[in-house]
Design goal:
There is one protein chain. With 104 residues, this protein is an all-alpha fold. The longest helix has 102 residues. The protein is rod-shaped, with a radius of gyration of 45 Å. The termini are far apart. The model has no long low-confidence stretch (mean pLDDT 94).
Amino acid sequence: RSNNLRQTTKMASDNEQKLDELSRKLGVQEEELKRAIERAELAESKLKSIEDELQTVGENMKQLEKSAEKAVEREEKLKDKILQIQQKYKAAEGRFEYGEMNIT
């Protein structure tokens, strides 16, 4: 009987040690999981920040494209005006020369 009792006591002690070891491992894994979740949340917030930045850059690009288009339109209009002025100048010059010829 006492041998049986000793074996049972030893088994109970061994099982308690195993339980302690498993509890310790579980605690370590829970800590690792917590840190992994924190890293994932940090990565998600960085990603969100980058997505927001990209959206802002995209909107700025659209504005710049519109500004560039307007600048090109203005340039075309100014070129047309310059051409018209040059043509008027040539016409006036022609009338002036014609008038000069008629005077002499």
